[in-house]
Amino acid sequence: MSFGEKIASIMERPGQDPVSKDDVPWYMKYAGRGVGTVGGFIAIFLGAWNCIGILLGDVSCLISGMWQMVAGFLVIIIEAPCCCMFLDFVQSVSDNVERRPYWNRAAVYCIIALPAIFLCLGVSSILGSGLIFATGVIYGLMSIGKKASIDDMSAAAGNPQAPAATMRSNLVDNAQPIGFTSKPDSNV
Fold it and tell me: Where exactly are the transmembrane stretches of this chain (predicted)?
């Protein structure tokens, strides 16, 4: 058993299939989980730090800090439900999100990260919400999927009957060449 397989067996969720159903590499899955978990904790801490802005009379930083803490908690609930075992609904929420496609998670993480930055532009907002946004970017990359093999790419580039080439040529098959236009009919 390799080191990667040992880490993968440790990081498995309860009841998870040992065989992956998608083509996403294991390091991308754990990068998303790791950045999401660490980013969620950092977002909560820096969100509390933003809330101190109320002492200076900055209400938008207070709202930004509260938003950032809620977003960080939501990311922790989804990515690391073991950190919130004392809440009974966390595992069901996390399992429900696991069944969704990766692009759903990417969109949610990117959307919930932005309001805190727009409300209070500061280092703590950018760093805390930036890690949540980075988690969304990682899941967005996972939703794109695996790159084709070099053989498949070279076959598609060299073969005019490849699906990409035929798709492109079908778009222009019905176009009339410029040099073969007919004269206007003078009888009309």
Answer: 35-57, 69-94, 106-139
18-77 confidence digits (pLDDT tens): 555 577 888 998 999 999 999 999 999 999 999 987 888 889 999 999 999 999 999 999
Helices (H), 80-185: 90-98, 102-119, 123-144, 150-158, 163-172
pLDDT band at 17 (very low <50, low <70, confident <90, very high): low
Written as six digits, the tokens of 28 are 């991308």
Q: Is 120 helix (H, G, I), strand (E, B) or coil?
A: coil
Which tokens sit at 49?
A: 């730090």
Alpha-carbon gap, residue 21 to 58, rounded angstroms: 48
CA dihedral 56, 59, 63, 65 (to 10 degrees): -10
Number of residues in the chain: 188
Determine what percent of the chain falls in helix, strand and coil, rounding each to the nearest 5. 70, 0, 30
Torsion angle defined by CA atoms of residues 38, 44, 48 and 51, in that order, rounded to the nearest 10 degrees: 120
